[in-house]
Amino acid sequence: MSDSQEPDSRLDARGLNPEDSDSDEEYSEGAVGDPQMDFLKNFFSRTLGLGGESQQKSLEELSLNGVAKYIQSEKCKNIICMVGAGISTSAGIPDFRSPGTGLYDNLQKYDLPYPEAIFDIGYFKEHPEPFFALARELYPGQFKPTICHYFIRLLKDKGLLKRCYTQNIDTLERVAGLSVEDLIEAHGTFYTSHCISASCRQQYQLPWMKEKIFSEEIPKCEKCNSLVKPDIVFFGESLPARFFSSVQSDFPACDLLIIMGTSLKVQPFASLISKVPSSTPRLLINKEKAGKSDPLMSMLGLGSGMDFDSEKAYRDVAYLATCDDGCRKLAELLGWKEELEEMVKHEYAKIDSSSATGAASSQQRQPKGKTEAKADTTKTKEK
Question: Which of 1, 232, 239, 294 is positioned for an S-S bond with 243, CB 3.0–4.6 A?
């Protein structure tokens, strides 16, 4: 689930307290890292200057312009993007936490015991109706990718994108042209669905699930009659195994981390910012600063959160704006503005053309009886 958080003692989609960034369970898959070792490494390398990686400064200046110059220097060849719900809000998809407009503030109509219950696997098994009602509103295929999505695609086309790690389930990264290989969908995807029965696990594809959802029918397995759920990660479920295995190989090779549209509050996704080398610049494009270290820990040189403002800041840049505006500005600084605008224009035209063709095909497939009935009515009126 994109950028979501459980309240109080409840656990997030990975079985963790979203605010508990030091939880041992965060590393239960054995692939993200050992928090005790990370603590010691940071202590000796940052505080005492012994061992580990030095605080090498890669940016000429801690600004968006500095990041652009770094990308143009050809020292930057393996960019990882980490994205959340904020990159899709301009497409019309609500994020989760924005006061008044966020998804969690607008779920009263579903009569939930608490907002996050709509994505709780236990609640879903007993009361699947609210989730599928919400799915009709937010279903993939009803929205266009944003400028931010196409900026990530542009990074791919230029051979600079190592991987995009997304918290989103709206599939807009795929629509924008990223392949399955380019993506780590940390919180799952709507593209496939499975029967929730452990003894069955029959797989279903997107068209099958879409037909069920829009016919307002609760999807049931054709083999065993159990519920069928899209392969998105609910609270109480584990992240995809590919998430953990990819982190191991991707992040040590990362030479620029771009974080966009996420509050960095959900673990273990939020902890990924600490997995890049200590010399790797990190750019946050967001409406507000996120992922910052605890002030006391930062003063001691401990912790691995973002440091934008202290005297020790040397690699983290925050550009406070909408994700689209931030990507537009970065593209302009890189000399890619016209290329990005042309890509968006071209891709939107393709989507509009495809939608028009689909609508025409749908009308042609209309039952003959209805067409004839309409014609008969017309004739009657003429008489």
Answer: 239
337-364 helix and 323-334 helix, angle to the nearest 10 degrees: 130
Q: Catalytic residue at 194?
A: no
Residue 194 three-state SS = strand
Is residue 227 classed exposed, middle or buried when 0-12, 13-18 and 19+ CB atoms within 10 A define those classes? middle
The neighbour count for residue 274, using CB atoms within 10 Å, is 21
Say which residue, 57 or 104, is predicted with more confidence: 57
- My answer on whether omega of the bond before 268 falls inside 30° of 0, hence cis, is yes
Please report, as a single letter, which amino acid is at residue 93: I
CB 296 within 8 A of CB 328: no
3-state secondary structure 67-136: HHHHHHCCCCCCEEEEECHHHCHHHCCCCCCCCCCCHHHCCHHHCCCCHHHHHEHHHHHHCCHHHHHHHH
Asked if residues 123 and 129 have their Cβ atoms less than 8 Å apart, the reply is no
Give the type of residue at 103. L
Catalytic residue among 127, 187, 194, 346: 187
Against a cut of 0.85, is the pTM above it? no
Task: Give the whole-angstrom CA distance, residue 272 versus residue 264.
Answer: 9
- Contact indicator for 70, 281 with CB cutoff of 8 Å: yes
